[in-house]
Design goal:
five-stranded parallel beta sheet; single chain; Sig_transdc_resp-reg_receiver; 8 helices; transcription cis-regulatory region binding; phosphoprotein; OmpR/PhoB-type_DNA-bd
């Protein structure tokens, strides 16, 4: 997975991002101002920077110049959510601009999009005897191809990208079927059961009581 630099002076937010990155298998480095960014970029191979705009000293709009010199993608994460700030952030080179407060699921999804766009993420996932190639949309179990519908694969990809994070049924419906879906959350249960059967993942895909599901993986 990727090594991600978190730069945010709000320690609670910084720690929350770090916890979620660790849960899905990414490495991370935490900074609380922009002063040490150049040093970290020189000493470590960083795949992505999550950068607050309002930092002590130089703000995120200034700091990004040093990051982009090293061809490292940036996602802004900030309370400054005006349209003018978003447009400015994207125009000066950021991959994405996420306003606080944010949902962990959305942040992780946008991180993976940015990593893929810059080809800095490993898009093959292995668990026990199952190998999932997220780029080729193929699944094998003990070397044998497993046929999946588009929705089944999308659900599997969502679970993988958010491994060890509990996803509510409502969030799964929103991400896979969209806001205008007229069915109910039992659709999620049916698709989860199909994945468990096809992949023999009864113990890996955990039911979170009265909430949803979590793909449990040792990282």
């Amino acid at each position: 997975m990727a090594k991600i630099l978190i730069v945010d002076d709000e320690r609670a937010i910084n720690d929350l991002i770090a916890v979620n990155l660790k849960m899905v298998g990414h490495e991370y480095i935490q900074l609380y101002s922009g002063d040490q960014i150049s040093h970290v970029l020189q000493e470590s191979k960083i795949d992505l920077v999550i950068l607050d705009v309002m930092l002590p000293g130089k703000d995120g709009f200034e700091v990004i110049k040093e990051v982009l010199k090293r061809n490292v993608p940036v996602i802004y994460l900030t309370a400054r959510d005006s349209l003018a700030d978003k447009v400015h952030g994207l125009e000066i080179g950021a991959e994405d601009y996420i306003a606080k407060p944010f949902e962990a699921v959305e942040l992780i999804a946008r991180i993976h999009v940015a990593l893929r766009r810059n080809q800095r993420d490993n898009n093959e996932f292995t668990l026990d005897h199952t190998v999932v190639d997220l780029d080729k949309h193929t699944v094998t179990v003990q070397g044998q191809i497993v046929e999946m519908t588009n929705k089944e694969f999308q659900l599997l990809e969502l679970l993988i990208q958010n491994k060890n994070i509990a996803l509510s049924r409502e969030k799964i419906v929103e991400r896979i079927w969209g806001y205008d879906f007229y069915g109910d959350t039992r659709t999620v249960d049916v698709h989860i059961q199909k994945l468990r059967k096809k992949l023999d993942w009864d113990n890996q895909i955990k039911t979170v009581y009265k909430y949803g599901y979590r793909l449990e993986v040792q990282v």
